[in-house]
Amino acid sequence: MSLARGPRSQTLRGSDDDLTMRTNRVVKNQIVFRIKDARKPASRARRPATLNRQSAAPADPGFHSRKPHRKSRTGCGNCKKRRVKCDETKPHCQKCESYGVSCDYAAGWPQSRESNLLLMLANRSASRAGPIDASVLSMSITDQGDRIKQVLQSASTCDADPEPLPSFTMDRAPFALQCFIDTVGFVASLSDSSRKVVKGDMLRLAFRTPYLMHAILGVACTSLYQFSAYDKSQKIAEAYHWQKAINLYKKEIQGPIGAHNMDGLMSTCMMMGVLSFSEKEYSPFDSWVFTSRPTDLNWLLVQGGLRFLIESVAPWLPQSIWFEFFMESDDENKTFDDHRPGPVGLHPELAELCEIDETTTEDDNPYHWPLRMLTPLLDTPMVREHFSKFSSFMGRLLPDYVSLLHRKDARACLILAFWMGKMCEEKWWIYPRMQAECTALCMFLEHNEDPRILKLLRYPASKCGYILRYEQQQPLLMSNLDFSELLL
Description:
Elements (H helix, E strand, L loop, with lengths): L1 H14 L9 E3 L2 E3 L14 H9 L21 H6 L11 H6 L13 H15 L6 H4 L3 H13 L13 H4 L2 H12 L7 H8 L1 H6 L3 H17 L5 H22 L8 H14 L22 H4 L3 H8 L10 H5 L20 H6 L14 H11 L8 H9 L3 H8 L3 H14 L7 H15 L5 H6 L1 H7 L4 H19 L1
Antiparallel strand pairs: 1-2
Helix pairs in contact: 5-9, 7-12, 9-12, 12-13, 12-14, 14-16, 19-22, 22-23, 22-25, 23-25
Protein name: Zn(2)-C6 fungal-type domain-containing protein
Keywords: DNA-binding, Nucleus, Transcription, Transcription regulation
GO molecular function: DNA binding; DNA-binding transcription activator activity, RNA polymerase II-specific; zinc ion binding
């Protein structure tokens, strides 16, 4: 039996010689492997074999010249950025179509770092898209551009001589829309319900409502202009979209208003309200309180347009995409929609200043209703779930009180300063304007001779960071008294 196994063992060794080391062996038809310990350095006896194997390696192949080929000299900018050969198909090359980016033939300008930033924002927005906005973000940038162009052109189909859409706005429209979607995700003041509407139903509505699409692109271009080294072309696109949005909105609002157009009109009105707070920097010296132009207060009065729309569509409001958001402006106890007469529940010192007694109503005293709205807000925490409660203050101001603001009435200005001071507690997107306007009101009211107003002015001044004049003089007076005591 042992003689019969010998040749078989030799055969196994020969067949496995390429797979095993020399030290491997066959024991009872089983191959026994000896594994080399990688922690131990290689023995000197094995080094010559390694050298022989290295020396036996084939030599480097010789240099071969590249085959002649035609370079893409007039390709689009995106293909050049990606370092791929453009097929130069116009108006959109096939490479960009398949890659899902907007071809920049029609733009006439090379893509800059700003364009790369916008593309990055678009990709980030698409990667974070939830199920609500997936129908919008699932489109490629090229598809978005075509659909944006289609909805904007539909606004001029009724005109006898429709104007062509300018290329400098349309080429950047997909990037602007993606930037808008991305920015919505970072707005700290938006509640969950409002964020859901803006990124979902409102965007879907914009693809069939020209004035709303213009307003959204206007907001996006305004934001991009501020954060793109003040690119003039971005400013031109911003002005174009806002002009179209306002003109189309005005034309639509002059017709019948109902369930068919209430969401488009209210969404556009909100976007125009955002424009009032769009400046990156504000100066207190540019405030309406230091000018004689009534139009300088329009940034506040434009917020009242939403109240008019809500009253006009009240029967259909439960069907609106914004209904849940509107319900957040009050609680189950109607705390923020209190129309009781008299001073009960009002800020006591402000109520005394405004001469409110037990018989006073909002019909005979213009300070009563804004003070009734303001008082519960002062004790409400500034969190995003309550943002609609704070912002609705602007839209519910009545004409009698607005007339007092135009006349720069001290008591009306003080109530407004209290609300602005409260809005300065959080650095939301409205903070720059609120802080500047509140500071301007403090600068204006600190010259008032009524000691009650000067005392109450401490609250808004402390919130906006303004040091009142008489508070600056008190430390100086005390230091002078201390110095005179030392001399004595």
